[in-house]
Structure formats: C-alpha cells, structure tokens
Specification:
The complex is a heterodimer of chains A (187) and B (294). In chain A, a hairpin with a 2-residue loop joins strand 10 and strand 11. Chain A is globular, with a radius of gyration of 15 Å. Chain A is built from five helices and twelve strands. By secondary structure, chain A is an alpha/beta fold. Chain B is globular, with a radius of gyration of 18 Å. The N and C termini of chain B lie far apart (37 Å). The chains are: A alpha/beta (187), B alpha/beta (294). Chain B: It catalyses: aldehydo-D-ribose 5-phosphate + D-glyceraldehyde 3-phosphate + L-glutamine = pyridoxal 5'-phosphate + L-glutamate + phosphate + 3 H2O + H(+).
C-alpha cells in the first residue's frame, strides 16, 4: 500500500485523506517533521498559503520538505499547495521553491469571481470538474515542465518531473481522476 | 461552462479555511498583524464585539471605507458583517467584493422575523447557530458556513462550548436514527427534512462549523477544536489583549496543534493579560446577543 502524506497544518486536509483512502492508499497526516518518514508521496492541500507558510516556518517543516522534493519524492500541490511548490511567485516571496514554474496568486479576482468549470485534460480524461477558489495560475513554466491543462489562456495544471501542481481543487469534487493520475503514474 | 457562486464554490471557500483562525480587525494595521500571525481570514469591523457592548445603541454594517482599507491591506480573504435580514447591507458588501459575509447577531437585527435568502447571492455567507435546528435553517437559506454563536464580546467560552456540544450531539443523534424517524426529528428541531437526510448520509454537517463567541486564550481555541469545531473566530480576544501580535500567533498555533499540550503550555507563557471577561449571568436577557436570530 502506498503511503502518502498530507500536509495537515490547515485547509482541505480531510478531503484529500478521504480521496487517497478511496484510491487504496494509506494517508498520513503531516504536522511536524517527524511525520515525514517513509513516505511514497506528499500532497500539499488547498488552504491559505500565507498561513501554511507561517506554520511551516515555525515547525521547521520547510527545509525537510524542500530536501525531500529535491531528493525526488513525488509531490502534488493543489491551489495553495501549488503556491508552496512554485520556484517563483509574482509579487511575493517564494516558499518551497522546488517546482520550475512562476505562479501568480489570486489571479481570478476575489471570492465572488471564484468558479467551477469542466476541463478536458488529454493526459488524464475529459470533463474533469475543477473548482477555482480565489485561485492562482501558472504564469510560465521552465524547460522540461509539461503543461497538462489550461483554462481561458492560463496554465492551471503542470508537471515538473515528480512534481505536480494545479490551480484548482480536485479534492472538493467526487472525481478522483487527477489524484489517481498522481498516485498511479507518479508515485 | 464557467459558473460562479455555485454551492460548491461557496462551501468550498469555507473548506479552505478549516483548521484556521479568523480574526476581527478594525483597520489596516490590525489586519496586517493578523495576516502576519497566520490568520486564514480577517473580519473587517467598525468595532469589536466588546466595544459594541460598551457603545450600546444600534450596531450596523461597518463604514465601507474601513472594509475597503482592510481589503487593500492584506492578501488573505476579508469578511464583513451585515445585520440579520438587512438585504441592502449584504448587497453593498457583495458589490464591494468582500469574500464572505457574516449575517451576524453581533449587529442589531434589521428583521425580527426573516433571515436573508443567502442562496440568492454570489458571495458566500456564514451564520451563527446554537443548535442543529438553527444550523439547518441557516443552511436551508443558503449559508455556506456556520459558527457557534457563543456570547460575543464576553471573553467567556462557556456559551460557545454549550453550542458546539449541542450541535454535535444533535448531529450524532440524527446520524444514528433510522430513515423513518427523521421527519419527526425535523419537526421537533424546526429543521428542513432533506437536510437531515443529507446529514445522516454524510455523517456530519454539509458545511464547516467554526467556533465563535468568547474565545479569549490559546487554550480556549484548542478546547473548541477538541470539541469538534473546524476552526475558530476570535473577536475581541486578540486586539483587546495586552500583546496582540504574540496573542494572535499563539492562538493560530494552538488551533493547528490543539492536541499538543506541551506546545500550548509553551506558547501560553507570559502572554500578558487577556481581555477582561464577563460572567454570562451578569448579562440581562436583552444584552445576550445569542438570543438574536430565529
């Protein structure tokens, strides 16, 4: 059974845990660095990236997670998780800075502009529901980074080798195809 | 087709706040302190609840300039309060682009019979509740998030504890019932029948439920998480304490690590004086904000 960590400082932790378990994985809550042992993959959930960053710093999780990412541990960041992974952020200081993408925060406006839409993702499947909540987007990608999906001309799902990041929240829907893609083809 | 303001988009926004602390602020400076401490959102107000108590008179929606100032100061979501049933205050806040509206008993109600039809709005709403009937009626009207009412501005956790225990005990009861018992339960609670069926199917409320109304210390915040709250609102507790920066950080950490008692001991050391509390028994019936709402 694959052991997948879910960063559990704040945000959509329960949803990711349930989805991982429905895919036959063991989900491990990560609250401190000792929890990071023996993982096959790590999910960075949606939530508030500024809050997660403060807590990552205070509990000395930032460096250990960065090291694991550099050692090749597969990671999947959704929304705030993508912001944590990005090498560069527009107008803000970067966090883990491991995924070769430039990300802009709150790209679609405020909560009244948040939306849901169905995306066709050639690599994964058709009509995948995507929920964008005060979502970021990927402004540009580095060499070797695969763009898996775009919406309205903005990149919203990309893969940098063992790192996967999306602007939206697959965990809020009952469609597990993107997470399944991560655990079955990347982990 | 791209759709805004759907139930999923509105409820999802609250799901992203889980495990976090939402702080009352009255200006840009306080908002920045809250964001730096790790708040997941701020509630922009003209006065915190304890000052609303002191001031007396009619409490209304905040001056839009204050809300705007707070929205300009931070990158985290900004919430604001509208009076119960005040359609125009809510529409004004929505038009300004606030991320969440609290239809709040902390303000003087504008309608003593009807709450807002919150499903009509693109912006999501949070509402207070003391029991499952109240919680289910608010969800039925379209609330995307709940919070306990507690007793705002008192620094006394006792009412918030009562409310979260009550709601969760009633949810457990519904989950344990057979289908044929639900209609009578719906009648007794004054709750929509379909919602009780949904609660039974999910095994929990269909929206997140935060604690609010009396959280004054890191231990209070952790207590509410222990009792099953999804997160915590802190009103007067932070900026009425002696050292708001330190207090705000400690409350955020205690909420995340609510079962780590050594850590809570550590962060609670020398925090300075918390807000002065009020014994609920000292409040007259018309001073109890939790009685507002129906």
């Amino acid at each position: 059974m694959k052991r997948i960590g879910v960063l559990a400082l704040q945000g959509a932790v329960r949803e990711h845990v349930q989805m991982l378990e429905s895919l036959g994985c063991e989900a491990v809550l990560i609250k401190q660095s000792a929890d990071l042992e023996k993982l096959d993959g790590l999910v960075l959930p949606g939530g508030e990236s500024t809050t997660m960053r403060k807590l990552l710093n205070r509990y000395e999780l930032l460096e250990p997670i960065r090291t694991l990412a550099k050692q090749g541990l597969p990671m999947f960041g959704t929304c705030a998780g993508l912001i944590l992974l990005a090498k560069e952020l527009v107008d803000y200081e970067s966090h883990l800075a491991v995924m070769d993408v430039v990300v802009a925060r709150n790209s679609y406006g405020r909560q009244v502009d948040s939306f849901e839409v169905k995306l066709d993702i050639p690599e994964i499947g058709e009509a995948i529901p995507a929920v964008f909540i005060r979502a970021p987007h990927i402004v540009s990608v580095g060499e070797g980074v695969e763009v898996l999906a775009a919406h309205d001309g903005k990149i919203v799902l990309a893969k940098d080798n063992h790192l996967l990041g999306c602007s939206f929240h697959p965990e809020l829907t009952s469609d597990a195809r993107i997470l399944e893609y991560f655990v079955s083809s990347m982990v | 087709m791209k759709q805004t303001g759907t139930e999923l988009v509105k409820r999802g926004m609250a799901e992203m706040q889980k495990g976090g602390v939402i702080m009352d602020v009255i200006n840009a400076e306080q908002a920045k302190i809250a964001e730096a401490a790790g708040a997941v959102a701020v509630m922009a107000l003209e006065r915190v609840p304890s000052d609303i108590r002191k001031a007396g008179g009619v409490a209304r929606m905040a001056d839009p300039r204050i809300v705007e100032e707070v929205m300009g100061a931070v990158s985290i979501p900004v919430m604001a309060k509208a009076r119960i049933g005040h359609i125009v205050e809510a529409r004004v806040l929505e038009a300004m682009g606030v991320d969440y509206i609290d239809e709040s008993e902390v303000l003087t109600p504008a309608d003593e019979e009807f709450h807002l039809l919150k499903s009509d709005y693109t912006v999501p709403f949070v509402c207070g509740c003391r029991d499952l009937g109240e919680a289910a009626r608010r969800i039925g009207e379209g609330a995307s998030m709940l919070r306990t009412k507690g007793e705002p501005g008192t620094g006394n956790i006792v009412e918030a504890v009562r409310h979260i225990r009550k709601v969760n005990a009633q949810v457990r009861k519904v989950v344990g019932m057979t289908e044929d018992e639900l209609m009578t339960e719906a009648k007794l609670l004054g709750a929509p029948f379909e919602l009780l069926r949904e609660i039974k199917r999910l095994g929990r409320l269909p929206v997140v439920n935060f604690a609010a109304g009396g959280v004054a210390t890191p231990a209070d915040a952790a207590l509410m998480m222990e009792l099953g709250a999804d997160g915590v609102f802190v009103g007067s507790g932070i900026f009425k304490s002696e050292n708001p920066e330190k207090f705000a950080r400690a409350i955020v950490e205690a909420t995340t690590h609510y079962k780590d008692y050594k850590l809570i001991a550590e962060i609670s050391k020398e925090l300075g004086v918390p807000m002065k509390g009020i014994d609920i028994a000292q409040l007259s019936q018309n001073e109890r904000m939790q009685e507002r709402g129906w």
